């Protein structure tokens, strides 16, 4: 019995040692294949939950932004953020504030997964080439290189999930008078595919892809560059022991999101308008005598820009910017905090932008 107890104790010690070694390897970045897969899955779950919670929290502002972007300038329903939200509440009720949010959340998980994974791979590849070119193995990514890696990630993620974003826009602006009545994301995708063809799922794709270059690229570049600056310079005593507080990280993310969305916003407006071509109550053209002629038809991105500015002025490219800006800070704040909480619960060791 004693020998069996000794063997059992040795086995338990051996198991503990093995687990400790695996944990040590995990902390050092040397992970077994199974652990790596599990870590990636946990990261995706954490990112998905964070994205879904943050998007749901600001869903009314997101819907109002899209409605402002595509509304007919000769039949104004939404004059601002407060008035617009009150109008939606009065005409459609509480559920109207969250119309299209299910589809929006459904695309967050794959979009975030592809975006962050693509950024990881792109940044590693770009850094490797940069180190080889400079001959300096200690070289780090510059803000410009981070911008390039973020742009690659944004393009890949946007292209992979664009059909879902397209039908989300239609579900968001759908009313009883809309040409199609979609019951949900799957029904919308199948209806567009059947009635309008595969190309319809990618209407507005070009301005979307062009838009994510400054948007996602600047998000990563500004966020990481601000973090590096705060850690290395330690201004105002904000950083101690090279660790950023949650508040400081949120401030970095808010600054990055604000810069990115402001630069890319006109392309987002054009994308929405191209997606809504042929829909009642969308932006329309006006004749010389000032009468509404009917829905605008765009032949492409440049034509959409030209007609929008000609008929509605340059300011039309920034319709909905206020509610979009208002939702940037709380959205990023909630996403970061939620991600950190879920990450701690699941034991995820990969940071958002490492």
From TrEMBL:
One of its GO terms (cellular component) is mitochondrial inner membrane. Pfam families: Mito_carr (PF00153). Keywords: Membrane, Mitochondrion, Mitochondrion inner membrane, Repeat, Transmembrane, Transmembrane helix, Transport. It is a multi-pass membrane protein. It is found in: Mitochondrion inner membrane. SUPFAM superfamilies: Mitochondrial carrier. The keyword Ligase does not apply. Coiled coil: none annotated. Solcar repeats lie at residues 38-125, 141-229, 244-345. InterPro entries: MCP (IPR002067), MCP_dom_sf (IPR023395), MCP_transmembrane (IPR018108). GO terms for biological process: transmembrane transport. Gene3D superfamilies: Mitochondrial carrier domain. PANTHER family: SOLUTE CARRIER FAMILY 25. Belongs to the mitochondrial carrier (TC 2.A.29) family. This is Mitochondrial adenine nucleotide transporter ADNT1.
């Amino acid at each position: 019995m004693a020998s069996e107890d000794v063997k059992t104790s040795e086995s338990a010690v051996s198991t503990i040692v093995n687990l400790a070694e695996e944990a040590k390897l995990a902390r050092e970045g040397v992970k077994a294949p199974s652990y790596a897969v599990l870590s990636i899955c946990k990261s995706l779950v954490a990112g998905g939950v964070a994205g879904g919670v943050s998007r749901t929290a600001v869903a009314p502002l997101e819907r109002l932004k899209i409605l402002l972007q595509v509304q007919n300038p000769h039949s104004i329903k939404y004059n601002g953020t407060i008035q617009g939200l009150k109008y939606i509440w009065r005409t459609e009720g509480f559920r109207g504030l969250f119309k299209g949010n299910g589809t929006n959340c459904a695309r967050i998980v794959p979009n975030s997964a592809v975006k962050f994974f693509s950024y990881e791979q792109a940044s590693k590849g770009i850094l490797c080439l940069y180190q080889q070119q400079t001959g300096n193995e200690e070289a780090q990514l510059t803000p410009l290189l981070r911008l390039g890696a973020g742009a690659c990630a944004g393009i890949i993620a946007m292209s992979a999930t664009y059909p879902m974003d397209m039908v989300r826009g239609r579900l968001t602006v759908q009313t009883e008078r809309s040409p199609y009545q979609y019951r949900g994301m799957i029904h919308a995708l199948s209806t567009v595919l059947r009635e309008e063809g595969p190309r319809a799922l990618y209407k507005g794709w070009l301005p979307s892809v062009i838009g994510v270059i400054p948007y996602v690229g600047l998000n990563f570049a500004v966020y990481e560059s601000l973090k590096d600056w705060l850690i290395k310079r330690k201004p105002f005593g904000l950083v101690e022991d090279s660790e950023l507080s949650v508040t400081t990280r949120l401030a970095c993310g808010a600054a990055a999101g604000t810069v990115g969305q402001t630069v890319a916003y006109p392309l987002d407006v054009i994308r929405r308008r191209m997606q809504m071509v042929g829909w009642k109550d969308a932006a329309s053209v006006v004749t010389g005598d000032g009468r509404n002629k009917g829905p605008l038809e765009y032949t492409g991105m440049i034509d959409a820009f030209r007609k929008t500015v000609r008929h509605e002025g340059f300011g039309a490219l920034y319709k909905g910017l206020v509610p979009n800006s208002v939702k940037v800070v709380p959205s990023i704040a909630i996403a970061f905090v939620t991600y950190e909480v879920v990450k701690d619960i699941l034991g995820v060791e990969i940071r958002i932008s490492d």
